[in-house]
Each structure stands twice: as C-alpha cells, then as structure tokens.
Specification:
The longest helix has 15 residues. The protein has a domain of 182 residues: Aldolase class I (TIM Barrel, Alpha-Beta Barrel), CATH 3.20.20. By secondary structure, the chain is of the alpha/beta class. The radius of gyration is 18 Å and the shape is globular. The protein has seven helices and 13 strands. A nine-stranded mixed beta sheet has the order 6-5-4-3-2-1-10-11-12. Strands 7-8 form a two-stranded antiparallel sheet. Helix 1 packs parallel to helix 2.
C-alpha cells in the first residue's frame, strides 16, 4: 500500500486532542478541546463526500490518541468501505476487534512507543501481533534525551522480531531540539537516507521549494480546518466540513524552514495537477 505512488489523495487527520498518556515531549493533550467535537456520524458523511469527489483516499488517523475518540472503532470500519486508513497510536488499547474486522490491505497501524507510560515488553508483543499491519514493518520512538539511551538496544530487540524502529527527532518551536550526539544516534538508527533524514534533522530547508502539501496531501484539524501540512496552522486550505471544499489545484512554494515529517511531498516544477 503506497497511496502516493498510486496517485491517491492523502490526508493526515487529527481526530481528537485527548490522550491517555502525558508524555513530557508532547503538548497536544494540554491544548484546548473544541466546545462541540465533530461527531462520528458527521465525519462519516464527510468521508463519503470525499470519496465521491477524490476517489479512494488514504487517511492517516492521529490525535492525541485516536482510539480514545468516542465511536472510534465503528468509524474506522465505516471509513475502510471507501478509503484506506493508517492509525498512529500508542497501542494501549485492545486492537483485536479492529484487526478481526479490517484486513491489512485496508488498514495500517503506525505504533509509537512512549517509555514514560508503556512497558517495552508489552509493546513489543503487541507490535509483533500486528506486524502484518505495520507499514514497512516499522514502529516509532521519540528521541527525547531521557529515553534516547535505550533506543539502540530496543531497536535491536525489535529487529530480532522483524520490526524496524524509526527514531523521531525531538522538535519544538520549529526546530530540532536534539544535541549533535543525539542527532548522530538518530541518523545511525534511522533507515532513512539522503534528503529524507537531512530534512528530519534540519540539515536541509524546504523553504521556497514547490510542495504538493495542500494539493495531494493535507492535514485536517479536530474542528475540520485544513492545513497544508503539520508545519502550518493557518487553516488556509479551508474546512473539510464545507460541502464545496477543494484542495489546491497546483503545488505551492513552502514558506517554512523545517520539514520534519512530510518531505516526500516536496517536488520540482513539473506542472502536475491534483484531481480533487
């Protein structure tokens, strides 16, 4: 399943801000919640409309921790009738009912290990249990100074079970916060090479480069506002709750200095247009 290569529209979706963890490097759970969260039935209608407009999309469901959203499992089952999904999760919930209901070709699970709240052995067992659902057999781990020392050994343990660890640089306020030694550990453990890891470690800047974020990919916030990517919080793409919502017709130049996640959408001038 590679929706980008298949030419499909991809969305990142912050389903909720709630989380059952309180990790020291994440402030999402501290942020204000919408007064009236978008209910699952309305989200179902939105995604049905997007299927009519854009065809089958790939939806990267995140949060907070998306599994705590009321009606989460039922909503996921509804979405995979017309789209494919990828769930970014801490794996703290019972995944068995969902994997029994949805095959790997319709759903992927992107687990992130958080040592402050999760036991590694329990996480390892769950990751192996859902290995058929892991994109490229990968799990994620934030390179926080308090937990980076254990990353090499935990990477080795995962690899013994056929799972790869992807270190995520610690970031905040638009910058990588890791020391040079911590960056070296991240680079050594990461399977990424070339521009991808350079963008992640802020050795390359996307500023001024044409990017399909907003055209072939966008991030949906909990209230339906749509941003070009995770680095923007302007809502300039519109609201996916609007019936006439459209993505940008063409790539646009990036105005940010740092691209920690979505550098795969950076492009050269090629005149490509979206279909949504």
């Amino acid at each position: 399943m590679n929706p980008k290569e298949e030419g499909r529209v991809v969305f990142g979706w912050d389903l909720c801000k709630e989380c059952n963890y309180r990790c020291p490097y994440c402030g999402v759970w501290k942020e204000a919640r919408p007064a009236a969260p978008v209910p699952p039935e309305l989200w179902g209608q939105v995604w049905d409309r997007m299927a009519e407009r854009c065809g089958s999309c790939h939806i990267y469901v995140s949060g907070g921790e998306p599994s705590v959203y009321t009606g989460f499992a039922e909503l996921m089952v509804r979405l995979v009738r017309r789209h494919t999904i990828e769930i970014c999760t801490n794996l703290s919930w019972d995944v068995e009912p969902l994997i029994a209901a949805i095959p790997p070709e319709r759903m992927r699970i992107a687990p992130t290990f958080h040592p402050s709240f999760a036991d590694f052995e329990a996480f390892l067992r769950k990751a192996v249990r859902v290995k058929d659902y892991l994109p490229d057999g990968q799990v994620y781990y934030v390179a926080h100074p308090g937990q980076i020392g254990e990353m090499p050994e935990r990477s080795r343990r995962l690899q013994e079970r056929g799972v790869s660890l992807i270190p995520l640089p610690l970031r905040g306020d638009g910058y990588v916060l890791n020391s040079e030694e911590e960056k070296r550990i991240v680079a050594d453990l990461s399977p990424y090479r070339g521009d991808k890891i350079k963008y992640q470690l802020q050795e390359l800047s996307p500023k001024g480069r044409l990017c399909r974020a907003g055209q072939r990919y966008a991030v949906i916030r909990v209230d339906g506002r749509v941003d070009r990517c995770s680095q923007y919080q302007t809502g300039e793409v519109g609201s996916i709750l609007d019936e006439d919502f459209r993505l940008f017709p063409e790539p646009r130049a990036c105005g940010r200095d740092y691209c920690p996640i979505e550098s795969q959408w950076i492009v050269e001038i090629d005149g490509a247009r979206g279909k949504c």
